[in-house]
Specification:
This protein has 2 domains: 4-178 and 294-377, Zn peptidases (Aminopeptidase, 3-Layer(aba) Sandwich); 182-291, Alpha-Beta Plaits (2-Layer Sandwich). A hairpin with a 2-residue loop joins strand 4 (96-97) and strand 5. The chain contains 9 helices and 18 strands. Helix 1 crosses helix 3, helix 3 (106-126) crosses helix 9 (358-377) and helix 7 (301-312) packs across helix 9. With 381 residues, it is of the alpha+beta class. It is 31% helix and 24% strand. The mean pLDDT is 96. The chain has helices at residues 4-15, 27-39, 106-126, 150-156, 204-217, 265-279, 301-312, 328-333, 358-377; strands at residues 45-48, 54-60, 72-75, 96-97, 100-102, 134-138, 163-167, 174-178, 180-189, 193-194, 232-240, 246-247, 250-259, 283-291, 294-295, 319-322, 338-341, 355-357. A 6-stranded mixed sheet has the order 1-2-6-3-7-17.
Length: 381
Amino acid sequence: MVNNKRLIKLTQDLLRINSENPPGNEARVAGFVAGFLKKYGLKPQVFSFCRDRDNVVAVLRGSNRRKANKPLLITPHLDTVPAGSGWKFTPFGGAIHSGRIYGRGASDCKGNLAVAMEVMAVLAESGFKPENDIIFLATADEETGSGKGLIPFLNKNKFKPAYALILDSDEFDIITAQKGLIHFKVIVKGRRAHGAYPERGINAIDRACYLIELLKSIKFSYAKHKLLKPPTVNIGTIRGGDKVNMVADWCEFEVDLRFLPGMEARRILSEIRESFDAADLAYKMEINDVQEPYEIDEFHPMVVALKEASRISSVNSRVKGSEGATVITFFKKKGIPAIATGYGSKGTAHATDEYVCVDNLYRGALILERFIRIFDGSHRE
């Protein structure tokens, strides 16, 4: 049975451990997580792919030790974004006020982490014997790309989940679709001259602005998606020139482009290059990151089991899409069906005075425990 008092204290204790990323150091919080799980008879392992960037894994072994064993991975993350300034509540205090627990990471993702830890403890205490392995994995480095956490974990293939539930969302939503992203930089060259005689030079900033307008005018072909908004283009940074009284001979801007399932990153980039080439300006494109979009059938057994667990818990979990990138994309590369859910409070992640509702944590723990039991039962042979 979920112990609400223990769950609240667990959330507060996690919030009181600083795991801001950057700079990135999950050693203390990982040690705390491992110590908690060990108290309830689990055998956690702490491992890292980089000094002080610790991850924690614990496995509730299934009775099916044959090849038919289909492990389910439950994964929140350990790190948070930096706290920043301007807080009314201490960012590492875990204060409770009006039914909310305040602190950096309360919604993203230490509330979810606490729920997963509580549920693993409840399952162990109850003597639950799953048919298939239940793998708990709390990862480092999610906030800056997962290069020191989930990505190398999956690449090492030490644990091979058949399914994954990512705990990194809000308000009990079930995320089944996600936009892809392309991050790229455009570098534009010009010719330097005195600012009083701009006609003697070629202004790279003007050229960059022209390319930006071209980029925004491209009409990408796509099919509407019922869970996601249309593709977006955002100019995230722009830099150029050396001094106000000089004609800028260089400029660069960075682009965040989000695209829908059914669209191809390769084709999108080809269209952009064709448009830029037609402008006949000197430029260079550098591709920094490409993540493909993702979607899973809304009637997949994981989705069905999670909706049923929510219904039993008197919660209306909505199937939704994610406009932003989550770690779902890394599971796609490995061919592992994945969905995301979570119990954070909408609009508070990364914000000043971040909080999570106490009631959400308790109901989230009820849902997660029931989901694990229902989903494991649906795979018994």
